[in-house]
Give the backbone structure.
Amino acid sequence: MDLNEIRKRFSPPKPQFSAAIDTSSSAQVSRPMISFSFIAANVTKTFAVLLIVLPVLVTFSVIYHNPHSDHRISSPFVEARVLDPKSSVVTWQSFEPLNATTEHVEEADNKLLGGLLSSGFDEGSCLSRYQSFLYRKVSPFKPSTYLLSKLRKYEELHKRCGPGTQAYNDAVKQLKSGSETAVPTECNYVVWISYSGLGNRILTVSAAFLYALLSNRVLLIDPGTDMTDLFCEPFPSTSWFLPQDFPLNNQFKSFHQKSPRCHGFMLKKNLLNSSRDEEVPPYLYLHLGHDYNDQDKLFFCDDDQTLLGKVPWLVMRTDNYFAPSLYLIPSFEQELFKLFTEKVTIFHHLGRYLLHPTNQVWGLITRYYNAYMARADERIGIQIRTFEEGAGPFPHVTDQILSCISKEKLLPEINKNDSSSSLSKNARAIAVLITSLDAGYCETLKELYWEHPTVTGEVVGFYQPSHEGFQQSHKMMHNRKAWAEMYLLSLNDKLVTSAWSTFGYVAQGLGGLKPWILYKPEDKKTPDPACVRAMSIEPCFHSPPFWDCKAKTGVDTGKLVPHVRHCEDISWGLKVVDGHEEL
Ligand code: GDP
């Protein structure tokens, strides 16, 4: 049974807002004309009644349509969208209730995500930027005013230093000249190389942007094969994409740990020394991938940051969300405290600020959401990612999912002894969005909840947008679907994710959701317990350094400060938590 069917069968008729207005106005029209003062008095009375009744009716109508108290349904704009699903852009002014000034201000604030986004972008070229608030709950995490002012200053910097500007051309000249030593430039840059799966890329580009904010650099990104197809420009009146004629473009693929300009390699060969005040090259390659060595890891030491600060161009390749370790660099720590007063919101805010799906991806997201998720009373996302040999679905993973949702009471239990209909007319509808490369898990759950009623009488629908079989990162539509699915997962009220997966981290971070994480199975056995509630909404840094830069000795970096702890799903990983827990 799908949700539309459920709705048709069990939904009470919608309150007729326009009919209510018609009734009262026709009653007024049918009154006999007695005198001007009588009419004037009645018109005034009617107007006064309308002034009171209309907003009340609108409010009731909105609540009646959807009982959640989140933004998605409490705005008249949303009401307009629901009433006319064919229309992709609806101007909400035409549906606004009377006396809506405060709502106006609130709407405008929500539309700009609490001030994270700048106004003034062309809306049509990137619909998701200003429409995302229609699909998301208002974030419980407010960005700090310090972060907002830092972002505005960064936008100015990017406009002054971005591709095509004099400052950019001057900085690029040094790269073209082949000079061995850098001369100071007006602007310094961090270049992000497109590398790894899409979830990894979304996290690493956000970490690179954080580094740019902390080190006062301009972030430019390698468009790779698909970045322009997936993401809108995030900064006003400029571009974050490297131009095609950027002099190092054709070297990106060949950069590795032994490249002559690799930061770690130069340190190893004593060609760079952070303790000497010496000349630096115009660019350095930072190898921050999961396979980086002890020298590459010195990136996370203050002394090396001082040295790197003199290098105009830093070119970075990473598949790691390295933000947690930036907290362990003393020169960045205080700034991070000021930027993120709620420490766990780094990716939540930066991801929402930076990563706007292009119109093609937004179409995938909104069509799916409106067709399968919009009308449910509750939405639950389950992300299933397996890292096992062989073809799925794996029975031990199916058992694990069932065990997690049952123990954590994420879905109502089914009554296995009953297959009759026990649905009430107003049965609550729960929509479960499943993402997986495999179709099997969704099919099993769907069948179970079709064959048996729930003990609560609620109806549960399972929806899976795609089952691509295996990772096909070279294909454009495959990546669009992957991005759309991460985004759709983030729109749920509750989330279950798979251990080790950046795909799930993206969803939890954008959604501001603390997921239940399905432990990684070992030896094809169902883990017990099956899942654990995440400590925070932040992603995990899978391969952090374990080095005390001052003492020059190994140290457990997950035990140094209360706000950087080991991850739930990877015991050696690091993640940012709110820091209230005892170490
Ligand atoms: P991770 O490997 O789980 O950390 O996530 P990544 O996103 O970095 O890489 C996995 C890639 O496999 C994705 O980017 C997709 O290309 C593909 N993939 C994995 N799971 C799914 C899924 O549930 N849906 C879709 N559409 N693609 C998936």
In short: Residues 1-43, 56-98 have pLDDT under 50 and may be disordered.
